[in-house]
Amino acid sequence: MDTKQTYRRLIEEIIIGHTKIPYSYGDIQFETVFDREQERYLLMILGREKVGGDLPSTTRRVHGCLIHIDIIDGKIWIQRDGTEDGVANQLVEAGVPKEHIVLGFRSPEFRKITDFAVT
């Protein structure tokens, strides 16, 4: 299996794994978006959560991106990571070299002082 195919599989497994973790509050669902042609992988959250503390039950809509990963020029670009443990750490544990992971949500200057790829 080639590297790109391996990366696709790992990314999808990690994202699907996060759908199994219950959201800590509210009525929140997960949606996976896998665009294999454009090499874009997302985990979206949507639903309603309670707001207002002791006030009568008031809710607000929740809709956003928890994880956004792209494969660009053979590297895994983490564009958004709203997870507790970090997708980059999961990828490293799965055997992806740090130099193949770009923390796209960080500035290029900050990326230079990490063990991960700059671009």
Describe the secondary structure blueprint for this structure.
Elements: H1 3-19, E1 27-35, E2 40-51, E3 58-72, E4 75-81, H2 87-93, E5 101-102, H3 108-111
Parallel strand pairs: 4-5
Antiparallel strand pairs: 1-2, 2-3, 3-4
Commentary on this structure:
The structure is a single chain. The protein has 3 helices and 5 strands; from the N terminus they run αββββαβα. The protein has one domain (3-111): XisI-like (TATA-Binding Protein, 2-Layer Sandwich). Helix content is 24%, strand content 38%. A 5-stranded mixed beta sheet has the order 1-2-3-4-5, with helices on one face. The protein has helices at residues 3-19, 87-93, 108-111; strands spanning 27-35, 40-51, 58-72, 75-81, 101-102. A hairpin with a 4-residue loop joins strand 1 (27-35) and strand 2 (40-51). The model has no long low-confidence stretch (mean pLDDT 92).
Summarize this structure as a short list of keywords or feature phrases.
119 residues; alpha+beta; TATA-Binding Protein; five-stranded mixed β-sheet; 24% helix; 38% strand; elongated
Content-based structural category: alpha+beta
Number of DSSP E strands:
5
Q: Architecture, according to CATH?
A: 2-Layer Sandwich
Radius of gyration: 16 Å
Task: Produce a short descriptive summary.
This protein has helices spanning 3-19, 87-93, 108-111, and strands at 27-35, 40-51, 58-72, 75-81, 101-102.
